[in-house]
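Hey, can you fold this one?
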Amino acid sequence: MKKILDGSQNSQGRGKAAALRLMHLYRAQREKDVIKEAPEYLKDKACAAYAPYILFVSWSAHRKQKDSDGAEAIAKQFLQRFPKHPLGGNLHFAGALRSLAAGEMADAISILETIEQRYRDPKLLRKVRSIKKKLHAYTGR
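Sure. Predicted structure:
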């Protein structure tokens, strides 16, 4: 994969190869390599079409490495650049779960409502609605 990246001048091919390489590294539990390589691919204009995927894998790697500050920075960048990209729903969902864990019920509900308004992933929406139902029963609202 690295050889394909080094030799590829085609932006579509290079961006796809970069995203696939990062996903492969992540699945191989090489999160540190993902974190190291992702910023270089994000700077590469040939990879621009795959930036949402590169950011998402980078965010996942930061989370797996327990680097909450790094993950939060990546999530913020992702959501600013690609506010309606379907993967953004997963980033918001993780934020809602963080809010729940911190006991910030109103914030969690607000984030879950944002997901409902902005994203159309049926599997994600089922989870969101299930959590909202439980929260409303718990809070009485």
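The CA atoms of residues 95 and 111 lie 7 Å apart. Let me know if you want another pass with a different chain boundary.
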